[in-house]
């Protein structure tokens, strides 16, 4: 079963490298900056996902506050 997880992770890694997935963790205050960053760098609409309560230990990439959203390009 361990080999299956290695293969699965390798495939996922290759897909992320081809797609150039960008995920920005941000707080309420910096969500507009994260949205603009994805639009400007990838020229595509951003995907905005609200984090679950369990993931609140992740910090914002622009400040030290707890992240509330993930902004991604795909």
Automatic annotation (TrEMBL):
Q: Where does this protein come from, organism-wise?
A: Bacillus salipaludis
Task: Please give the superkingdom of this protein's source.
Answer: Bacteria
Entries under InterPro entries matching the protein = YyzF
UniProt-recorded name of the protein: CxxH/CxxC protein
């Amino acid at each position: 079963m361990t080999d299956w997880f290695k293969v699965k992770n390798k495939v996922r890694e290759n897909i992320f490298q081809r797609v150039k997935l960008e995920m920005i963790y941000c707080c309420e205050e910096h969500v507009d900056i994260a949205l603009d960053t994805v639009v400007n760098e990838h020229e595509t609409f951003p995907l905005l996902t609200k984090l679950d309560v369990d993931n609140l230990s992740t910090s914002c990439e622009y400040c030290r506050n707890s992240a509330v959203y993930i902004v991604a390009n795909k």
